[in-house]
Predict the 3D structure of the following.
Amino acid sequence: MPEKNKRPDWTEYFMDITRLVARRSTCIRRQVGAIVVKDKRILATGYNGVPTGLAHCEDTGCIREQNNIPSGQRHELCRGLHAEQNTIIQAAFHGISISGATLYCTTLPCSICLKMLINAGITAIIYEQGYPDELTESLLNETDLTLTKVK
């Protein structure tokens, strides 16, 4: 008798979707995807890239790369928005509260995104890869956010 397909648990399921969202990114340095989930329902999705209607970095070039700015530093010197920022914006644009929800993200949020997520009421973050931002670690130590790293 053939073995049944292994049904993914909820974390695997939502992380698979998060990885798919990341594939929409137009960033030439790092593709990041994020989704906000509450009660096993996706409330918003986001990937990193420039604001709607602006030329993509793959067309204009990357300011950060041109100036040799390391990952995790000088976030303001970028044409794009982070995936986490885009989830918050998408939820706000559609009038959806994300308070009490979980963020699934391919990368640990930077300190700027983390501050926004805290104020938006996100209660848990599930992520795959780290991100070199020391302030993120410091801020996380002061919150009661549940943080989970998955493979």
About this structure: Strands lie at 33-38, 41-47, 102-107, 124-129, 146-149.
